[in-house]
Amino acid sequence: MKELFSPNAQPRRTTFLLMAAGQGALLLLLWLFYPLRMFPSLGEVLRSLQDMITTQGLIQELWASMTTALQALTVATILALLISYLTALPFFRPLAYAASKMRYLTLTGLTFFMALMVNSGHEVKLSVLIFATTVYLVTGMTSVILTTTQQEMDHARTLGLGEWRSFLEVVVLGKLDDMLEVVRQNFAIIWTMITLVETLYQSEGGIGLLLYKQNRYLHLDGVVAIQLVILAAGAAQDYLFTLLRRVFFPYSALTTAR
């Protein structure tokens, strides 16, 4: 028990899981027996969740949103990696700088121009999500590239590698685990944007549209239920990315403080 309150301690996995489960159970009990006056009770949320699953197609809407999110993430990741790696050439560095600063743009005004450039509502949704995700990914990925030290590059050169091969080995291959971590951290951006794009273009539905309808008619129990579903889906995706990093890049754990 003492190690749970010691700075930089590493408690046993079983102890940590029991602690987390206890904290979660305590929150559920507080929600069950002492609900906030303006907040729906646990029973109301569970009943609303069951109703949306059986009558409103919550699972199908979640799947529709998730497939759209994965499509956007795939394209955005490819674009962001391309832009970030091109910073090795001074000619392209202003492009990455401009892309990173575009994260300050509001998407409300950009959706009109994107609608003019593409043909369908689905393409507009993808365009908005890809743009929003790409500019944040570029920011994170270029930061990872900038952590490359002169010592790392000099070490590659002493091994007889040319400039391009050194860049490939040290920056591209050597930092793939960090790039995956950037993708994991920024995947949440898509879920924060999904409500906006699915309410603007409602033809394909999605969990964002379902959330908008629940919020519009002040069904707070439904709003909380959908938010919990999104939270659970996001946590599962976070765990999946962490697992992929652990499987494909086991050496990344060696730099973690213990």
CATH H-level superfamily title: MetI-like
Structural domain count: 1
Q: In one word, what is the shape?
A: flat
N- to C-terminal distance? 18 Å
Q: Please outline the major beta sheet.
A: none
Sketch the topology as an H/E string, one letter per element: HHHHHHHHHHH
CATH architecture: Orthogonal Bundle
Number of helices: 11
CATH topology: MetI-like fold
Q: What is the strand tally? A: 0
Class from helix and strand fractions = mainly alpha
> Which residues form runs of ≥5 with pLDDT under 50?
none
> What does the average pLDDT come to?
87
Helix content, binned percent: over 70%
Name of the CATH first level: Mainly Alpha
Strand content: under 5%
- What radius of gyration results from the CA coordinates? 22 Å
Give the topology, please.
Blueprint: H1 13-33, H2 42-55, H3 58-85, H4 93-101, H5 107-117, H6 121-146, H7 150-158, H8 163-173, H9 176-200, H10 207-216, H11 220-248
Helix pairs in contact: 2-11, 3-6, 3-9, 4-6, 5-6, 6-9, 7-8, 9-10, 9-11, 10-11
What report would you give on this structure?
With about 260 residues, this protein is mainly alpha-helical. The chain is built from 11 helices and no strands. The chain is flat. The two termini are about 20 Å apart. The mean pLDDT is about 85.
